[in-house]
Every structure is written in structure tokens, then in C-alpha cells.
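Write out the 3D structure for:
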Amino acid sequence: MTTKNALIRYRTIDRCLQNNGRQWALQDLIDACSDALYELEGRDVDVSKRTVQLDIQLMRSDKLGYNAPIEVYNRKYYRYADPDYKIANVPLTESDMAVLTESVTMLRQFRDFNLFNELNGVIQKLEDKVYRNDNELEPIIHIDKNESLVGLEHLDVLYQAIAKKVVVWIDYQSFVARKSNRFRFHGYLLKEFNNRWFLVGRKAEEEKLYTLALDRIKSISVDLRTDYVRRDFDATTYYRDTFGVTVIGNRPVPIRLRFDHHNAPYVLTKPLHHSQVSLPRSEDGSLEIKVTLQLNYEIERLILGFGEGVEVLAPKRLRKRIKGILKRAAGLYAPGNE
């Protein structure tokens, strides 16, 4: 709050000194700052003489980048030596411009998502303020996104329902269902994984937690008559022993994997999971690691993504399953299937 209050004081002093129609003694500036903070806090805020004197000193200096030309005349009153000065006109440094330009470029990548619609005005204002060369600057940071994803239109409604603790009716059809099913749902969390969005929560009157893919939701409507209930859910705890979004509920098991020398550096610099423990690399450069996780679809797909660069050492049932998947995959390329 100290920083916020200081900014209010700086702006108040600036506004006062822009008004050349009256004389501003130190006590006048103190009173103006007190009034401004009262409007902000709703209570009297003690602004001392020393505080405002330090504010003026800081505004004069280069520490805030203002270099405000505040002068004292008649040994009593304060004014700007340049009557056209105001802190809003302080030019940005080259470093400031570089940061702002890149920030605008990055924020613009979110502009088409419904969830970030409120950013549009902010981004436009930033673009209006940021100096642009005649040649449009190419982005330095690129965030992977797919605006064609089905279900993104539901993000806004679900976000607001969770934030405002509102129950929703959902028409949902899984990939294996022949028709959709309608039920009340108490949403707790929106989670993104592998460029897909999911809703986590409970169906009305059920204890079980469900993970619903937004691309399988047919329609949503709010239910203002049913009380919203959130019971014993903590996202960090819920996903602690899981890779991805599918929480099986089984006890996590130690998974031992050996990566070849080509993939070892990637696994060392980007661990698969926070539980990862790495053994010293072998002479051939290979790396053995252990992660403790629930066995689910996502961990299988992660392992398969490394292809021949990884071997499952344990547990046996996971090794057997990955072996079977790879064997069937290799059969697709057997003679006669080419």
C-alpha cells in the first residue's frame, strides 16, 4: 500500500503544480495529498510534512525518471519552472520502450481468446503509447495457441461461474457416448494441458471429482436456484502425483526410465515431473531417472513421444503396455502394410 499511496501523492502534487491559477504552499500540498488519500482509503490518512518534502525531492530527482522542474518562489510557494510540464509527459527511455513493445506484442497474441477480451482496450492503449518504427517489429516471444480449438467459447461463462460460485447446467457428450448427457455441475478449476482446456469439479449430489473437456461441452446455462458447494479441493494437492489432467485416484508408483544420450540433456534441463530423481549419467551418456506418479493416459503418451530414445525399466505392467503399443505400431509398417 505504501507504493500505491506514494503514486497517489506524486500525481496529486503534479496536478496541483499544473494549476498556475493559485499559489501552492507546502501545507496546501499536504492537504491536497491527504484529501486524495481519503478518497482512496475512505479514512483519514496522516500525511506528514516530511513525507511531502521527500516526495518533492524524489520528483525532482532522476530516481523516478520525472526530473520535475519544481522550484520555490517567494521562499514559500511551489511551482513548475516549466508551466507546460507534467509527469504524464515524461518520455520513456529506450529500455522502457523495448520492454513495452515486446509486452504489447506478447499480449496481442491473447487478444482473440474470449477469456481475454477485457485486455483489448488495454492493449490498444499501450499500442497508442508505444513508439513504433515505420517497419512493424517482429515478435521475439511467441506463445503457442490455436484459436480454432472447439470449446473456447465456454471459457468466459465457466470462469465467471467459478469466480462467482454459481452452479451450471452442462450438456456433455464424451467421445464414446452416442448422445449428450445433461447435469448440474459445481466447477472448481479451469485447467489447460497440451493445448486443450478442461473443467474440474463435481456433479450435484456426488462426491466424485470429474474432469470435463471443454471441446465435448455442447451447451452451458446457469442455475441460480441451486446453492454452490465447494468441498475439499486443492488443485496443488489434487495434481501432485499426476502428469497431465487425468487423476485416476490410485496410489502413485515409482516409474524408472532410461533415456539415451541424445535425450538425456532434455530430461535433465526440463524434468518430467517435480518428483523426478536422476541417477549419475552412464559412460555411454544415457540417463536413468525415477518419477513417482499415478499411471494414466498422459504419462504413456509422454513416454511414447520419446520413441526409441527411452526404455521403461519399471513397473513391469507399464513396460509391458508400452511394449505392446510399440509392437502394434511397428506392425503397421510390416511388409504388406506399406
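DSSP finds ten helices and twelve strands in the chain.
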